[in-house]
Amino acid sequence: MRLSRYFLPVLKENPSEAQIVSHRLMLRAGMIKQSAAGIYSWLPLGFKVLRKIETIVHEEQQRAGHIPMLMPTLQSADLWKESGRFDAYGPEMLRIKDRQDRDMLYGPTNEEMITDIFRSHVGSYKDLPMTLYHIQWKFRDEVRPRFGVMRGREFLMKDGYTFDLTKEDALHAYNRHLVTYLRSYERMGLQAIPMRADSGPIGGDDTHEFLVLAETGESEVFYDSQITELKFGDREIDYDSVDQCQAVMEEFTSRYARTDETHDAALFAEVPAERQRSARGIEVGQIFYFGTKYSEPMGATVQGPDGKPVPVHMGSHGIGVSRLLGAIIEASHDDKGIIWPEGVTPFHVGIVNLKQGDDQADAACDALYASLQALGLDPLYDDTKERAGGKFATMDLIGLPWRITVGPRGLKNGVVELTSRRTGESEEMTPEAAVEKIAEIYRGIA
Ligand code: ATP
Ligand code: MG
């Protein structure tokens, strides 16, 4: 993309409504625009990152054999009356009447709808196990929408639902989700720690939340510092293997890590004092096993091996896709702006032309731009007439992890400059070497 043809409405001033750094930087980098309290338009740069996060989530879900689909945002209230949650859910649910005076709602989650789909079409235990998921907008009329996309009213969530014949199978599905989540967050450059949590209005016994440590997090968390040393990395895993998924689950949840809702001071005291930590965290996902809570009242049964109908064991598993943008920025920024991890960056590399209009500099930039694109990379070329300082400030603000700077002086010696946004270190090299280095960095990521 050439910046002169893009829509990147960056702000020079700090917007006064933003209380935390991720919200401030998303507004300043022209990623979002508020349209009503807790409701945002995703401007091109923000939309690009949102799509990247969605893609990672899709890939990791499908790698584990989970099946993508799409359910509507607007739901009929009937199913919610059946489960008993239409009255139980409270004022967070946006209730709407259509022109026939029918009760409708903007879905805050989809357990009822997926259970209805399941009971209409699945009849035998032989069709299990099954995991269906979608990535769809949700609406929760939060009392205090704040912090930009972090606590929105309309927000994008991946929600997956598991159907199994037995509790044992359902717990395998639970562990399998834990593995997919660990992989997804790591690909986004994040460490998200599974912590024992409280089940809230969705209900159930087994549940973990995934928390990104950050001062601005809304949850209070307590953990054994050893847990922050764990990495999933690029290990191979067979998602059908009960033992392998169970082993990862145990590895990542055996140390003390809890949110304030389930915090147990006596247990925490058993952690060696030098490893006890209390901090703040951002919830970026949650997994639940809730058994037959919905399948029983809603009659979602399958014919078991003995021919008798049995209610299926279910779980639901969510990732806060839009909240993740805020969480990533909270975890990765400096006083100049955002620092995108390579896995989610909106553009792979920025090209800064120090002397737009200079034939040699323009030609070198055009050639760089073309060779990067030919390798399947997505550069942002600042081809505007802005002065160099302004160009650098914009690149730093929007946080592309790599920048190639091109100017007449370097070109005389046949070199350009490659700069890392994270370390600030620059290296001179030929344009070909810069392209090769960028390609190398993104091999296996882009
Ligand atoms: P919270 O405790 O933050 O209100 P929740 O536990 O009610 O969240 P879940 O039902 O577990 O939310 O939803 C799955 C994920 O969706 C959460 O882990 C979170 O990342 C995200 N999420 C929930 N509410 C919001 C919101 N208002 N804005 C943005 N993301 C949200
Ligand atoms: Mg939750």
UniProtKB/TrEMBL annotation:
Residues 38-341 form the Aminoacyl-transfer RNA synthetases class-II family profile domain. The keyword Ribonucleoprotein does not apply. The gene is proS. Keywords: Aminoacyl-tRNA synthetase, ATP-binding, Cytoplasm, Ligase, Nucleotide-binding, Protein biosynthesis. Homodimer. It comes from the Bacteria. This is Proline--tRNA ligase. Its main location: cytoplasm. GO terms for cellular component: cytosol. It catalyses: tRNA(Pro) + L-proline + ATP = L-prolyl-tRNA(Pro) + AMP + diphosphate. It comes from Sulfitobacter litoralis. GO terms for molecular function: ATP binding; proline-tRNA ligase activity. InterPro entries: aa-tRNA-synt_IIb, aa-tRNA-synth_II, aa-tRNA-synth_II/BPL/LPL, Anticodon-bd, Anticodon-bd_dom_sf, Pro-tRNA-ligase_IIa, Pro-tRNA-synth_IIa_bac-type, Pro-tRNA_synthetase. It is found in: Cytoplasm. GO terms for biological process: prolyl-tRNA aminoacylation. Its EC number is 6.1.1.15. Catalyzes the attachment of proline to tRNA(Pro) in a two-step reaction: proline is first activated by ATP to form Pro-AMP and then transferred to the acceptor end of tRNA(Pro). Belongs to the class-II aminoacyl-tRNA synthetase family. ProS type 2 subfamily.
